[in-house]
Amino acid sequence: MALTDSEILIGKGPPLGSVPDAGRRIRLMSYNIQTGIETRFYHQYVTRGWRHLLPDAERLTNLDRIGHVVAGYDIVGLQEIDAGSLRSGFINQCAYLAHRGNFPYWHFQTNRRIGRIARHSNGLLSRFKPEVVTEHKLPGMIPGRGALVLSFGHGSQRLNVILVHLALSQRARERQMDFLAELIQDSPHNVIMGDFNCRSRSPEVERLRANTDLTEPLHDLHTYPSWRPERNIDHILVSPSLVVHEASVLDYPLSDHLPITMEVTLPEALELD
Fold first, then answer.
1. What is the CATH number of the domain that holds 56?
2. Residue 218: pLDDT band by 50, 70, 90 thresholds?
3. Mean pLDDT over residues 13-42, rounded?
4. DSSP letter string over the chain?
5. Which one, 23, 227, 238, 252, has the greatest CB density within 10 A?
6. Could you tell me if residue 208 is inside a domain?
7. Band (47; pLDDT cuts 50, 70, 90)
8. Global pTM?
C-alpha cells in the first residue's frame, strides 16, 4: 500500500536497523526515478515533457517522497537521476537523496551531458563503505550508457554491486549483456540491478544468465508503467551464493517506474561494515 502525503511529510516509514544479522542480511532496491518527475498517465509524457529540460517547483517535493521510500533500504540503485544541471536546479539528486535517506556513502556516474541543461546519470546509495568504486562505459552504437560498480570486501570474496540502465535496442543490449558477463566472470558474489529495458524472459536476459550463474527469483514483478504495471523491465539479479528471502515491487508511483526490492543474506565469508 502506498503512503499518503501526510505520512511521508511527518517521516513515518520502514524502521531502520530492524533486520537481524546486520551486515550480512541486506535490503536492496532499484528505482528509475525519472529525474524526480511524477508521471501518472501516458499523456503526461507530453504535457510534462518540458520538465526534462527545465526546472520545476514540484520536483523537490517528489524527491522528498522518494527519499522517504529509499530510506528503508541498505543499498539503492537509482537510474535517471540528474547530477546537477539547469533542469534539477543544479542539485545533484544522488547527493540529495543520500541526505534525505541518511546514507553515508553515495556515488554517481554521469553518462550523458547536454551542456548546462541536463546531466543524465545513475547513482548508488549505500549504508556500507565500499572498498572500490569503478565506472565502465557500456558498448553501443549510441554512447551514453554505463555500469557503476561498488565492490565490498577484498579479493575473491568481495561483493560487487553493479548498477546499469541498458539501451533501448535489442542488439545493443545483447552487447551490453556480454560486457557484464565478462565483467563478473572472476567474481563469485555479484548483484546486477537496474532498468534493463527488457523483460526477464527476453533473449537478452537469457543470454546474460547463460553466460553467468546469475538468477532472478521471480518473473512477474511488473514495474512499468507505474500507474498500470504490465512490463517487468527493472531487475535485480544475484549470484547463487546470496540467499534470497523476498523480492517485490512497491506501490510507490512517484515516477513512471515502480521500485523493485530484494532482501538477501550474504555468505558467511562476507559481512559489510
1. 3.60.10.10
2. confident
3. 74
4. -PPPHHHHHTT--SPTT-SSSTTTEEEEEEEE-GGG----STTHHHHTGGGGTS--HHHHHHHHHHHHHHTT-SEEEEEEEESS-GGGTT--HHHHHHHHHT-SEEEEEEEEEETTTEEEEEEEEESS--SEEEEEEPP-SS---EEEEEEESSGGG-EEEEEEE--SSHHHHHHHHHHHHHHTTT-SEEEEEEE-SS-TTSHHHHHHHHTS--B-S-S----BSTTS--B--EEEEE-TTSEEEEEEE----SSSS--EEEEEE--TT----
5. 238
6. yes
7. low
8. 0.89
